[in-house]
């Protein structure tokens, strides 16, 4: 048995390979124009190196179009090709003369081509390709290459012409728009903007790349005025910035990298990513979306850079992620940081505009680099309950308060204290304030978290019976905590547990529908350590006089009424909270109204009067010049009248002491109701007192005529009920 291995050779499906290379290697057919122009550029470089008689002034590339015939022609004054070179380099996939040139001194840093694949891109847009050439080595001979598919071709000898090469593309119907001069000028104006060889389109006499980039200024020319130089840089940047107007520019300078960065004159948010960066390799556009070379925090910046060392992929539409790539990314990041610092120093008006337009994005940028933080710490503004403020204006008593909701207890509590609360749920606010606080001997209080609540509310232990009383009178399922806090005018406040709320939301079924399982698994690992048993806490202010009086009163009807009033106030204060179950506002308002009516029973008296009785009383008020402005209404039948005369007040106090104050319903037309005979007899002498007759009720016509019901005048002094 023969166990020795056998060496085999792989077969290549040439037709399939040519289809892939010619039609699918590049993302857009426009790349074919770029590849053919860069081949022309390398041919000119080769002639400059090999032909001593060649003058650089004679170097040029011209791209012409015939829209009627749908033909595009690229002509160069380069070295041309011999017949042998057509077979060896042009018709051999993966082999190009540039590979040999790279081994020569002075050519490596100027050549663009690398792989010998660019010519194949022509077959992606053309039905047929015709190449006519005349080499400087054999100027007496001319050759013509023709092919329809890059697999089979013919080469014939033709009459010699000028040294150089002409490539003619017979465009497919779907690419006919490429045969327009204006379209060609627009496309090539971007691809060839930095090419050092002049490129002409059609019959135009001015090259489309006549303007040199700012970093390629001619040292023999006098330096431009700073304002002119700034204007020129902005105009150059505007050629590449497609969505915004450049606000200012910053130079990129390094051993290999040269270019410009700019700040976009358009508003951005924290998560905006409008980065755009065009990379040119030896003057030819390689990648017009190399945004990853810009720092991640620079979502409001764009740029153009040129390099000789960055290496392209085979399609020449992206960059290889090698050491040169990482060095370029570092250099661009350094240029962005130093450029912003230079603008802050030398262009204060521009700097203010940058801060205004990109404030939120700069908050995040400050966290990515210590130099940026030093530059921005006292400049950026923090969104807060009192508007956008600088960090130093948020500090109060050595603390910076950060909230995580809008319209909650934080707004109400800190508005009473006059303290601004930073919006912690906005982009980068909390980490920025943490870093700022660590450098300024300041504490960050995260409101709504258990740790933050311990700072805001000084908990105090009280007797279990007193805590049970507060829970029964004031609680609605919250954990009731006795504490002392400011302002003392605030009797109580409901504080939701934000961490528990987060845990509940992330563990709900709705989260499974909205969040990917991978991300959900990660955050649930975090929330697993959160005790979500307490959804909200009710802090009762022991320094508040009403709470102190409530605890002193203990059990009883007065404590019950006061507790109901405070509980209703709590419900009203809690309506702005982002809770699933909102309190019943009608119940709260009704409770407050009943409490107010009860209080008026001990002060200003009131009555329940029927509609007709009220109208009669109002007419009598006009007759006796009683001020109608003392009238008010709670509901449709309750009216407030003048305070009773001393006589009636004295007898009301007697009834209150004897426990009959609860019988207090009165109707002008119907007389006293629910008043016992004993009470009526006790009031009988009031009918003989003129002071009682001066009472508004006593002056109504029905009462004035009805002297047989003397108790009515005294009962008028009794406070009304709401039943």
In short:
The protein is an alpha+beta fold. Helices cover 38% and strands 18% of the residues.
Q: How much helix is in the residues?
A: 25-40%
Assembly classification: single chain
Number of strands: 25
Physical arrangement of strands within the biggest beta sheet: 5-4-3-6-2-1-7
Strand content: 15-25%
Radius of gyration: 45 Å
What would the average pLDDT be, to the nearest integer?
75
Low-confidence runs: 105-115, 602-723
Molecular shape = elongated
* Gap from first CA to last CA: 115 Å
The total count of helices amounts to 27
Structural description of this entry:
This protein is α+β, with helices and mostly antiparallel strands and 723 residues long. It has 27 helices and 25 strands. The protein is elongated, with a radius of gyration of 45 Å. The relative contact order is 0.05.
What descriptive keywords fit this protein?
five-stranded mixed β-sheet, 723 residues, seven-stranded mixed β-sheet, alpha+beta, disordered C terminus
How do the strands and helices of this protein lay out in sequence?
Blueprint: H1 14-24, H2 31-50, E1 61-66, E2 71-76, H3 83-90, H4 97-101, E3 126-134, E4 142-147, E5 153-158, E6 164-171, H5 181-191, E7 199-201, H6 226-238, E8 246-253, E9 258-264, E10 276-281, E11 284-287, E12 301-307, H7 323-346, H8 348-357, H9 359-366, H10 370-376, E13 381-384, E14 387-390, H11 391-394, E15 399-403, H12 409-417, E16 421-423, H13 429-439, E17 443-446, H14 450-456, E18 458-459, H15 464-474, E19 479-484, E20 492-496, H16 498-506, H17 509-514, H18 517-527, E21 536-541, H19 545-553, H20 557-573, H21 585-602, E22 606-608, H22 611-623, E23 638-640, H23 646-657, E24 665-667, E25 671-673, H24 677-682, H25 690-693, H26 701-705, H27 711-715
Parallel strand pairs: 1-7, 10-12, 15-16, 15-17, 19-21
Antiparallel strand pairs: 1-2, 2-6, 3-4, 3-6, 4-5, 8-9, 9-12, 10-11, 13-14, 18-19, 20-21, 22-23, 24-25
